[in-house]
């Protein structure tokens, strides 16, 4: 579970970073 949670967190962080960069 910990591994899946970490992957989910990293995925969300990646999308968030992409979203912010896209807005800029």
Beta-strand segment tally: 0
Range of helix content: over 70%
Written as H for each helix and E for each strand, in order along the chain, the element string is H
Beta-strand percent range: under 5%
Mean pLDDT: 81
Q: Provide a count of the helices.
A: 1
Biggest sheet layout = none
Radius of gyration: 11 Å
Structural class: mainly alpha
Distance between the termini: 34 Å
Basic shape: rod-shaped
Give the low-confidence spans: none
Features:
24 residues; mainly alpha; rod-shaped
Short description:
By secondary structure, the protein is mostly helical.
Structure description:
The chain has 24 residues and is mainly α. It is built from 1 helix and no strands. The chain has one helix at 2-23. The longest helix has 22 residues, at 2-23. The protein is rod-shaped, with a radius of gyration of 11 Å. The N and C termini lie far apart (34 Å).
What is the fold's blueprint, element by element?
Elements: H1 2-23
